[in-house]
Design brief:
Helix 2 runs antiparallel to helix 3 and helix 4 crosses helix 5. The N and C termini lie far apart (68 Å). The protein has nine helices and no strands. It is mostly helical.
């Protein structure tokens, strides 16, 4: 066999392998659309909840009042010191023993949001500490209250500082949605596991779901980078 013939055969074999791989997964592609949409919904709601929890915790920890600081420190200590999977199980399986029953979607959003809030709190706290104390002292001299100072002077500057680390946290939240397959949320990972169990083709479908997660994470990070540039210009 000549080198030219061998090259043609190799190319044909590679094309045939790719075509065969595509034919194997093409029939299952429609199932990934609804699963990806669930991931998007969970991610958005979890990020919003984590921002709310993080802001409250950061303000409590930097307030100077122990009645607020101690609960905030306990929250950070517990959430950052225990696995996310344990927290998901605690919300979904543990709360019903206290009479609080949540559907898998709500439990997943709460678990991811509360978990992310602990890390967002430290990001915001770092941003608050980066603002010179002289600005707070000047606002007090002008007769502004604590909340007026935060809303009008401190927090607008903090936003500019914290967007880059918040981008990484948002991407982590998106990827952590894969853990919600353990409480039967039909997101991408659970859908992939079901398909793999029926086709016995783990390599093809795990590669596919990895590409979907990669695309979604890329879109999220591009959006956050745009927000970072926008705020950099605004100030």
């Amino acid at each position: 066999m000549s080198a030219e013939t061998s090259g043609v055969a190799t190319y044909s074999g590679m094309y045939g392998a790719i075509d065969g791989w595509w034919n194997q997964i093409e029939a299952y592609l429609p199932l990934f659309g609804p699963a990806a949409w669930i991931v998007v919904q969970v991610t958005i709601l979890s990020i919003l909840l984590s921002w709310a929890c993080g802001l409250i915790c950061a303000l409590a920890k930097t307030s100077g009042y122990k009645i607020f600081q101690y609960p905030a420190e306990f929250y950070l200590w517990f959430i950052r010191g225990t696995p996310l999977l344990t927290q998901i199980f605690l919300v979904y399986f543990g709360l019903p023993q206290l009479g609080i029953r949540l559907d898998p979607f709500s439990a997943g959003v709460i678990a991811l949001g509360v978990n992310g809030g602990a890390y967002v709190a430290e990001i915001i706290r770092g941003g608050l500490l980066s603002i010179p104390k002289g600005q707070r002292e000047s606002s007090v001299a002008l007769g502004m209250t604590y909340w007026q100072t935060m809303r009008r002077i401190i927090l607008p500057q903090v936003v500019r500082v914290i967007i880059p680390p918040m981008t990484n946290d948002a991407a982590t939240t998106l990827k952590n949605t894969s853990l919600l397959s353990t409480i039967t949320i039909m997101e991408l990972m659970l859908q992939t596991q079901i398909i793999v169990n029926s086709t016995f083709q783990p390599f093809e479908f795990y590669i596919l779901v990895s590409m979907i997660y990669l695309a979604m994470t890329t879109v999220l990070m591009v959006g956050m980078r745009w927000a970072e540039r926008r705020h950099a210009i605004a100030y």
